Amino acid sequence: MIQVLSSAWALLLGMGLLMIGNGMQGTLLGIRGAIENFSTFEMSIVMSAYFVGFLGGSRLAPGMIRRVGHVRVFAALASLISAVMILYPTFPNIAVWSLGRVLIGFCFSAVYVVAESWLNNAADNSNRGQALSLYMIVQTLGIVIAQALLLTADPSGFVLFVIPSVLVSVAITPILLSITPTPAFDTTKPMSLKELVNFSPLGAVGMAIVGGIFAAQFGMSSVYGAEAGLSVAQISIFVSAFFVGAIVLQFPIGYLSDRMERRKLVSVVCSIGVLSSLLGMFFGDNYNLLLVSAFILGGMLNPLYSLLIAHTNDYLEHEDMAAASSGLIFINGLGAVLGPVVVGWMMGTTLGPSAFYLYTAILFAALLVYSLYRATRRASVPIADTGAYVPIYPTATATAVEYAQEVAIEADQDEETAA
C-alpha cells in the first residue's frame, strides 16, 4: 500500500478532489432544482443527461486520447467541467442544465479513462489489486466528503457552485505536475452484445438493472430528499449513507462471493435490496430508518455490480474478459440513462417521493426473480473453479473494469500456480 501511495499519490489526490466536485454538483442540483421550482420530471431529465454524456464519453474518449494524448485531454476536459459548474447558477434553466450535465458527464467519463490508465501504468503485478481498491475508496470518500461541504453555504446562492469549480481546477495541478510517465494507451476490441448475453444472460440483464438503480440513487436521491421536505443537512447525510454502505459492505459480500455459489448470493443481495427499499418506502417519515434503508441499499447495490462482473467472468476464458468489459459497461450505461427519467416520472404521479423506493424495490425484485430463473437453466460453476472477486464501483469506466479484469486474472493464475 505504501508503494502505491508513493507512486500514485498525486493521481489519487487529484481524483479525490474531482470526486468531491462531482459529488457536490450532483446533490446540489437536486436541492437547487427545488428552490428554482423545477418539477420532479424536469430534474429527472437533468440527472439522466449526465449518464447520456458519461456513456458517450466512455465510447469516444479512447479516440481523443490517441489523437492528442493524455495530458491535453485531461487538462482540457477538467477545465470545461470547472466552467460548466459556474454556469449552473448563472442560467437556472432546464435546457441549459441538461446540456451542462451532458457535457460534465462526457468530461468526467473521459477524465476517469485518463486517470485509470495512468493508475494502471503506475502499478505492477504485486500491487495492482491494492491500487485499484485504494482508487475506489478514494472515489467513494470523495463523494461522501462532498455532502459535508454542502453545509458550508446557502444552496440558493453561488458559493456552493464555486467550491466544486475551484476543486476541479485545483485537482489538475498535482496530476499534471507529477513525474509519473504518460502511459501508452490501447483499447481492447469489444465483444458483441449478442456474444456477451450468450455467455452470461444474468450478467447482462443484471448490469442493465444495476445501472438503472445506481443512476436513480446517484442522480435522484437529493431530489427525493428535497421532495420529502428534508433539510439540506439531512439530505447531505442521507446521500452519504448510500456511499458509506457501499464502502462498509463491499468486502463482506466479496468474501462471501468467493465462498458460495454466485447466483445464490445475487438472489440474497437482491432480497435484502427489496427489503431495504420497502423499509424506506413505508417508513420514510422516520429519518433514522430512512438512513438505515439508504445504508443497506447502497451496501447491496455497489457490491452487486462487482458480483455480476465476477459471475460473468466465471463463464469466460481469461483472454475474453477484457473484451467483455466494454459490453458490460455499455449495458450498464443504457440502464443508467433510463433510470432517473423513470423515477422522475413515477415521483411526479400521485405516488410522490415514495416512488423512489418503489422503483428500486421493483428492479431488485426483477433481478431476484431472474437470478432464480437462471439457476434452473444452467448448472452452477463449482466454487473451486470460480474466478476472483475484485471490488469495483458503478462509477468506473471500461478502463477500470478492464483493470479489474487484469487483477482477477492475476489472482486466478496465482491460485493455479500455488495448486
Write the layout of secondary structure elements.
Layout: H1 2-35, H2 40-68, H3 70-90, H4 94-122, H5 128-149, H6 159-176, H7 193-199, H8 201-227, H9 232-257, H10 262-282, H11 287-313, H12 318-347, H13 355-374, H14 398-418
Separate helix tally: 14
Poorly predicted runs of 5 or more residues: none
Q: How many strand units? A: 0
- Average pLDDT, all residues: 85
What is the 3D shape? globular
Biggest β-sheet description: none
N-to-C span:
26 Å
Structural class: mainly alpha
Oligomer: single chain
User: Percent of residues in beta strands?
Assistant: under 5%
Helix percent reads over 70%
Could you describe the 3D structure shown?
With 419 residues, this protein is an all-alpha fold. 79% of the residues lie in helices and 0% in strands. The protein has 14 helices and no strands. The protein has helices at 2-35, 40-68, 70-90, 94-122, 128-149, 159-176, 193-199, 201-227, 232-257, 262-282, 287-313, 318-347, 355-374, 398-418. It is globular, with a radius of gyration of 20 Å. The relative contact order is 0.15. The model has no long low-confidence stretch (mean pLDDT 85).
What does this entry show, briefly?
With about 425 residues, the chain is mostly helical. The protein is built from 14 helices and no strands.
Provide keyphrases for this structure.
single chain; 419 residues; mainly alpha; globular
